[in-house]
Amino acid sequence: MAALAVFSVLILAGLWLHMSRLQNRIIVVTDRAILVLRAGLFAWATPSAEAPLARLPRETALGPLRGPYGSLRLAGEKLWISFPARRRVAAADAILAGSHRGRAGV
Hints:
Elements: H1 2-21, E1 25-29, E2 33-38, E3 54-57, E4 71-74, E5 77-80, H2 86-104
Antiparallel strand pairs: 1-2, 2-3, 4-5
Organism: Parafrankia colletiae
Protein name: PH domain-containing protein
C-alpha cells in the first residue's frame, strides 16, 4: 500500500514537471503579419498576454514542417504543430506562394 502511494506521488510529480515546462503558443496569420502569442497551459486556445511575443512580416514562410511531430522554428523558438493545424500551416504558405507569383507577373 505504501509503495502504491509513493508510486502515485512520483507519477504526479513527473506529470506536474512536464506540464510546467510546456509553453503553448498561438500563431495568428493575417494579410499583413504573423503574430506569435502566449497561450494558457489549459486554455490553450486563449491568449494569456496582451502583447504578442513576436510580430513577423507576412512574407515569412511557416513551413515546411520538419520531422514526425511537425516542428518548425519561428521567432527563435522551436514549435510543434498539432496534427489538425498542419493543414492550416500549409494553407498559409500556399497563400504566400500565390501572392509571390502574382507580384512576379506585375
